[in-house]
Amino acid sequence: MNCDRRVLARLLATLGMLLVAVLVSNAQQIDPKTYGGMKWRLIGPFRGGRVLAVTGVPSQPNTYYFGATGGGVWKTTDGGISWDPLFDKQPVSSIGAIAVADSDPNVIYVGTGEACIRGNLSFGDGVYKSTDAGKTWTNVGLKDTRHVGAVIVHPANPDIVFVAALGHAYGPNTDRGVFRTRDGGKTWDKVLYLDDRTGAIDVVFDPQNPHILFAAMWEGWRTPWTLNSGGAKDGLYRSNDDGTTWKRLEGDGLPPGPLGRIGVSVSGADANVLYALIEARKGGLYRSDDGGTKWSLINDDHRFRQRAWYFTHVWADPKDSNKVYIANTGLYRSIDAGKTFERLNAPHGDHHALWIDPGNPNRLINGNDGGATISIDGGKNWSTQNNQPTAQFYHVAADNDFLYRV
């Protein structure tokens, strides 16, 4: 009896497969001309999505740019009232870093691939350059870096650029570390490389002396089921010769390793003052008053180190060496060298990016998980994020009504 049932089941399954094959072969083919005139169009919603990269233009007070993790590069010339997409024709839409050349604001560099390595991240294909303020773009290399933490442009020479490349998030590769170009992206030198697991997450100039740079190296990687943040070679590195050679900063007040993710910033008001936000077990906000030789732990508030692999961002104010900003679930500011912080009322939560106008520190643009937002009064008021159709969607569906609802 059981044998007969198995035979019958197999027979029915075979007949079912044959029926499906017949139906498919006889299915009516739709003439492509029927839908050939249809084009994609934006129907909204105009809601901002996650942003890790922002910048303004010091010489153009109403011009700003942001890079979304799933929406490409956007530009405003009216102080955030409206935004225009600049990157729709490029093959990638995940932006990790963006920088405008101070000496020529028509020159923009974009590092693709987000470096805040959450589980659902998108990778990029290197660095893009525009010489016409974002109208057109050219990929200038570093295609296998995949995730870029920072891009900085020499203040006096738009052809000198440094890139902090994290590298592959899901496996080892050698295209990671700090890269430098001196010819506008035609060629690149890997100037700081440690191993195929440790990449660069941040790089900054000394604002008063661009021959001096600081970089943060991080062994950060993940799999679909786990995440690693921290390794033996994590650390802060300093170069005194335009990035040609580097020295690791250790001891003298810095915590023991593994250090994990690090954010670093040099004060524009006093180049001897550095801030470093360090993930380590004994980490927190550290400050140096002698150019990075000796350090002191200023603040170990856990609010600034939670989900450190996703945040760990710090910026020194360009005019006041005792003013410093930290981005985490909120955007925080200290006016007493990091001892205490107030939370600014920037919209949305989970903050990742901040640009401070070096000539007017009241002028800010912030990037967070709800988009980009601008303040011109030092963070008291902010522009809307409901004019940026960059939100990341996980599902979409339409019903059968006419007109249909989405």
UniProtKB/TrEMBL annotation:
Q: Does the keyword Translocase apply?
A: no
- Where is the secretion signal located? 1-27
Q: A GO molecular-function term, please?
A: hydrolase activity
- InterPro entries, sorted: Sialidase_sf, Sortilin_N, WD40/YVTN_repeat-like_dom_sf, Xyloglucanase_GH74
Which stretches make up the Sortilin N-terminal domain?
Answer: 127-250, 285-389
What CDD domains has UniProt attached to this entry?
Sialidase_non-viral (cd15482)
Q: Does the keyword Signal apply?
A: yes
- Official protein name in the record: Glycosyl hydrolase
Alphabetized UniProt keyword annotations: Hydrolase, Repeat, Signal
What Pfam families has UniProt attached to this entry?
Answer: Sortilin-Vps10
Q: Which residues form a coiled coil?
A: none
**Gene Ontology biological process terms, A to Z:** xyloglucan metabolic process
